[in-house]
Amino acid sequence: MAGRLISVRRIIEVSRITPFSLGILGENPSRPRVAPLPAMNNALLASVREADGRYLSDVELRPFEQMMEAFQTRVNLYNHVRDHSKDIVLNTLRRLMQTPHRQVVQEHAQQCQRDMTYTLEYVAKGVLLHDEDGFMEEYLVWMQNIIRAFHRQTACVVAYRLLKEEVRTTLPSDQSNLMMMYLDKLTEALESGI
């Protein structure tokens, strides 16, 4: 039972993670800002509060164990993207050079690399925090401004489709699936003109 109590305490600690505690609130105005979130997994915390005066049963602990397993996948994804984002982006840009948008890459390679790197960073943070809505609100507004500034929406759509493919082939499938939810939203928004 002691192991289970430690797990519950760990879940409570994890559920209080915010962008502030992770140190990921951006200070650079040229980058999208990650908005602060309320405590994660409030439903799980509520079950702990409801068990006041007693221990949680194995059945009641199952959602906590599932959450911890899912959270570990999210942490692994975040670490993988952090460690490999440069390679993922460079491979994507190499593939983009093989398309009719070669000139865009030649003229704007540094901006493309920077923006795709930011994209991977913010998607990884969104996945880590399980915050699809915050990603859509904060990140897509930033991306809309970038696209308008460069007038390259068609090239961006192709580039981010290629980025999705690179992520799909580079990351382990469980991590890739989490990233796809966010990248699908991004490419849908780009295709519709944000």
Lay out the secondary structure.
Layout: H1 2-15, H2 19-22, H3 42-50, H4 58-96, H5 102-129, H6 132-150, H7 153-170, H8 173-191
Helix pairs in contact: 1-4, 4-5, 4-7, 4-8, 5-6, 5-8, 6-8, 7-8
Protein described:
The protein is mainly α and 194 residues long. The chain has a single domain (2-191), classed as Globin-like. The protein is 77% helix and 0% strand. The protein is built from eight helices and no strands. The protein has helices at residues 2-15, 19-22, 42-50, 58-96, 102-129, 132-150, 153-170, 173-191. Helix 5 (102-129) crosses helix 8 (173-191). Mean pLDDT is 77; it is low at 1-29 and 31-40.
Major β-sheet annotation: none
Shape: elongated
* SSE ordering: HHHHHHHH
Instruction: Provide the CATH superfamily.
Output: Phycocyanins
Report the span from N to C terminus: 51 Å
In total, the number of strands is 0
- Please state the oligomeric state of the protein chains shown: single chain
Low-confidence stretches: 1-29, 31-40
CATH fold-type name: Globin-like
- CATH architectural type: Orthogonal Bundle
Return Rg in Å: 19 Å
Helix content class: over 70%
Number of helices: 8
Task: Output the structural class.
Answer: mainly alpha
Mean pLDDT: 77
How much of the polypeptide forms β-strand, as a percent range? under 5%
CATH class: Mainly Alpha
